[in-house]
Amino acid sequence: MKEKFKKYIHSKTTKVVLTIFVLGIFLDLLFPLPNLKQYSEQILSNDGTLLTAYLTADDKWRMKTNIDNVSPELVKAIIEKEDSWFYWHIGINPVSIVRALYSNIISGKRVSGASTISMQVVRLLEPKERTYLNKILEMFRAVQLELHYSKKEILEIYLSLLPFGGNIEGVESASYIYFNKPPKQLSLAQAILLASIPNDPNSRRLDQNNEDVKVARDYWINYFKENHTFSEKNLDDALEEPVEFNRYAVPVLAPHFSYYIKEHSNGDVIKTNLNLRIQKTAENLLYNHVQRVNPKGVTNGAVLIIDNKNSSVVGYCGSADFYDAVSSGQVNGVVAVRSPGSTLKAPLYAYAFDEGTITPKTRLLDIPTDFHGYEPENYDLKFYGNVTTEFALRNSLNIPAVRLLQEIRLENFINLLEKNGFSEISDHKKELGLSLILGGCGVTLEELTRMFSAFARNGELHPLAYTKDDLEDKSKVQVFSKASSYLIAEILSGFNRNDIADLSNYSQLPKFAWKTGTSYGKRDAWAIGFNPDYTIGVWMGNFDGKGSPYLSGAEIAVPLLFDLFNSIDYKPEKKWFSKPEDIIKRKVCAESGLLPNKYCSKLVTDYAIKKSSNNTICNIHQPVYVNLKETVQYCTECLPSNGYKKVVYPVYDPELTVWYTENNYNFIKPPPHNPKCQAKFTADGPRILSPSEDYEYLLEENSGQEIMLLAASDSKAKFQYWYVNDKFYKKCKPGDKVFLKPGRDKLKITCLDDKGRDESVRINVKYY
Ligand SMILES: [Zn+2]
Ligand SMILES: [Zn+2]
Q1: Longest Cα pair distance anywhere in the chain, in angstroms?
Q2: For a surface tag, which of 182, 275, 277, 398 has the fewest beta carbons within 10 Å of its beta carbon?
Q3: Residue ranges of the alpha helices (H) in 428-529?
Q4: Is the pLDDT of residue 7 over 80?
């Protein structure tokens, strides 16, 4: 066996073949094929429509041609015309070489090139002087090309590089620029016309009127007639077709989107998920809406539309009009960093649902609150007192949100936002405070809309799929639970709220949830909505940052959001998220939103998350011992032996009681405690509402500015006693305000009630 093999290897022919083979590999390595040329980047919509293309670095329109996107007649015409044996030869065609040599010798000059398409590709890649030596090199190169690429690839390179005059290269570019259509839609006459241009591209270009063009076209039509390449009838029709001279601009659809893709993706032809029908609808609605609100000092807007099925970006408007320089239309509002207003309240409440802190019916306080010197107000400058969580979120109340953020802790919430991919927030997290929840931070429309799409995808944050390739990325982060996402969707889809569009404009509005936002100084108006199908983000404002008194999420952004859902997702049947299994229905006390105790008389149904939501029992409804007239309250220490009864009273949070009293609310409270009672209490002493612990007061020298002292007490306290640095200062009734002109020292301020309970805070005072 071995001997036989040796014999074989030593046979002469084998030696020759092996030598050629090794030499071939050696030469191929030593003289690699020239690089392919850089193509114009093409950005395609989800159905393959060319959105736009970009000039190459050498200023050429050189779009890569995919043979499947070219009319078969054009391909056939080019092959028949240039190299009819293309599919059978190996780069060189011996028959035509012999024929060419023969006719060259006969005529004494070069008449026929005998170039195959492969040889022409070599010349297009590596132009050289036309000498016999170069011709021979070209042949070697052509063979080399055939060994490296398939016939289809070679043909595609050829179709992509053919010159069509000026800076136009390739049939794809030529088809768009000369005929304003993709090469698949060319007529036979147009296909033959295009096939004839590369022979003399500079005198046959179609952007300059030239009779030679029609002569050349008709010559080839007749040539194909003689060779029966196409049906005679079609060729006769082609002869009748007039030649039109034009130069069209390369399409520019979805300019902000296309440019974003160009900057963030690689490839000659980038297939995106943009849906042109949705894109055009969004562009028209945004443009018209901006025209409508322009008199109100709002000149621009941006829209992002995500298909929730796979998080693909199907609509993307960076501005109302890319070409409007006056309103800076070239700024891309989808990625601009702006203040989010109140939009981040949705993730805050979702987080608190997941933490178990609240349920939709939990009561939150909406009363003036001093957060270490930060005293937010509501948008309408009103306070609503004791509100349910769902009311607070749906109506975007500020104080409950700040209080909630304080309760769940700022750093936890910032972590959540980082998990949601808010990069500006992440970069500046050290500088952020509680005002973050009211817009004191920077976000982009892209980040916000992506986060809201997580609510529509069971709480999973998926990366946005801009391109078809992006769809392969299956990574995701569970940012909210399925249950809290459902609760947010339920609460924010209610129509009983103040940020709603005029519903009489719509007959069959699809169901969706939405959150609005208005930034400080009325510079940004937001409305982000979602339903099972789409998540749509709308930003309205001015790119120069100017505010407008009319600018608000409800007034300026919501109508556009409604229009978008109405046109894009219009369908009579309304599908909605199904209720997750760990969402349970339970009865809670209507007044506290907590699980009822036996004294709670009015119950309502609430949703809760199994295993997460807290099970706190109502602390408002308590039985109290009173005299028969219900004018005096007793404790067990001072309870008389007769002449009393047990009555259930609502006992509110002392802070709320102070606010109710201040605002003359008509509310039920237990009568004052028996004045003769000698008992001391330890629990539930006064709560100092002002000043705030550790707060630094900056006062103007000699201005006479004073610090307000205010404390809440429960109904057992009749008096409060204020002490400054342990020295008695003043006596007052619970809820009365006391004023103090501070010295320069650190102050310890103590409030003691007549039941012996106290609380202290320490503050610093500085003068300037
Ligand atoms: Zn209750
Ligand atoms: Zn008592």
Answers
A1: 140
A2: 277
A3: 445-456, 482-492
A4: no
Which residues neighbour 764 within 8 Å (Cβ) at sequence distance 6 or greater? Answer: 694, 695, 696, 697, 746, 747
SS3 693: coil
The torsion angles phi and psi of 521, rounded to 5 degrees, stand at: 80, 10
By the CB criterion, residues less than 5 angstroms from ion ligand 2 are: 635, 637-638, 674, 677, 679
Segment 239-258 mean pLDDT: 94
CB 551 within 8 A of CB 524: yes
Task: Mark out the alpha helices in 180-275 (DSSP H runs).
Answer: 188-196, 211-226, 232-240, 255-264
Q: What is the rounded distance in angstroms from the CA atom of residue 732 to the CA atom of residue 751?
A: 10
**With 90 as the cut, is the pLDDT of residue 765 above it?**
no
Task: Please tell me the number of the ligand nearest to residue 754's CA.
Answer: 2
- Under the banding of pLDDT at 50, 70 and 90, the label for residue 239 is very high
Nearest Cα to Cα of residue 647 among 668, 666, 625, 667: 625
Ligand 1 center to 363 CA (angstroms): 11
Q: Helices then strands (H, E): number in the chain?
A: 22, 27
Full-model pTM: 0.86
The neighbouring-strand residues paired with 516 are 527
Amino acid at 653: D
Distance 712 CA to ligand 2 centre (A): 19
Which tokens go with 661? 């009293």
Which of 230, 247, 158 is CA-nearest to residue 187?
A: 230
Whether the upstream peptide bond of residue 691 has omega within 30° of 0, thus cis, is yes
The CA distance from 221 to 189, in Å, is 8
Q: Which two tokens stand for residue 569?
A: 């997702």
The string of pLDDT tens digits covering residues 636-659 is 778 899 899 999 999 888 788 888
**Beta carbons of 334 and 318 less than 8 angstroms apart:** yes
Distance, CA of 319 to CA of 543 (rounded, Å): 9
pLDDT in tens, 595-606: 999 999 999 999
Q: Is 596 helix (H, G, I), strand (E, B) or coil?
A: coil
Which amino acid, 78? I
Distance 682 CA to ligand 2 centre (A): 13
Ligand nearest to the CA of 678: 2
User: Would you call 422 helix, strand, or coil by DSSP?
Assistant: coil
Residues with CB under 5 A from ligand 1 (ion): 589, 592, 600, 618, 620-621
Ligand 1 center–CA 701 separation, angstroms: 50
